[in-house]
Design brief:
Length: about 220
């Protein structure tokens, strides 16, 4: 692989998205939010009323799924069947459905090519939950970002619209998702053996990015 690939894995609310965006700007490479792909699948499952737990139905659905990223300036926009769905995939319901449906082998296989095709043509930072373990095991640099549950829940709470704010519910949903993601049989959430682990509980975004840059520049 001639391109430089950096993976940043970790649980929800650890700061992966903000860190990835800032790091990509400093390094002049593309930022890819792989979680958006899984949210895109979940969005279409919900929109189309798909019984995704039935393998035959799921496989037919995935064969007809037209999901991809397009570049607009420095941003990757998520497109489904020609429609920009970027602004529709961040609800709590979609988050939980994405976590559950992403455990399906068929879903992960369907999205693998999209991610690897991007990596073939651009230096990129891939943010997700199994980027360093499953998708890009040979990535040049791997990071695993984590933080205390209460801190992660507060961060996610602060990002949400006022009308749906409920800190207790946010923390409970996040706790359930942590369990689902870490205990699933297919590509569980866990740091790669050679990943650099960073606890962001008491660090600013700038401090996390600085740590990553030092590691990258040392190599």
């Amino acid at each position: 692989m001639d391109t430089r690939i950096i993976t940043i894995d970790g649980p929800a609310g650890a700061g992966k998205t903000t860190v990835s965006r800032m790091l990509s700007k400093k390094l002049g490479c593309v930022y890819v939010d792989t979680g958006a792909l899984y949210r895109g699948v979940a969005y279409e499952i919900q929109k189309q009323g798909i019984d995704w737990e039935k393998d035959e139905i799921l496989e037919i659905f995935l064969k007809h799924l037209d999901l991809n990223f397009v570049m607009e300036k420095d941003l990757l926009i998520l497109i489904s069947s020609g429609r920009d769905i970027t602004n529709f995939i961040r609800t709590p319901e979609i988050s939980m459905l994405a976590s559950a449906s992403s455990a399906k082998v068929q879903v992960r296989a369907a999205l693998l090519d999209i991610q690897r095709n991007i990596a073939k043509i651009k230096d990129a930072i891939f943010e997700g939950r199994d980027m360093g373990t499953m998708v890009f095991p040979d990535a040049a640099h791997k990071f695993f970002l984590f933080a205390d549950l209460s801190v992660r829940a507060k961060r996610r709470y602060d990002e949400m619209p006022d009308e749906i704010k409920d800190i207790k519910q946010v923390q409970e949903d996040m706790k359930i998702r942590d369990v689902n993601d870490s205990q699933r049989k297919t590509a569980p959430l866990m740091p790669a053996e050679d990943a650099i682990k960073i606890d962001s509980t008491f660090l600013t975004i700038e401090q996390v990015v600085e740590k990553m840059l030092k590691c990258i520049n040392k190599a």
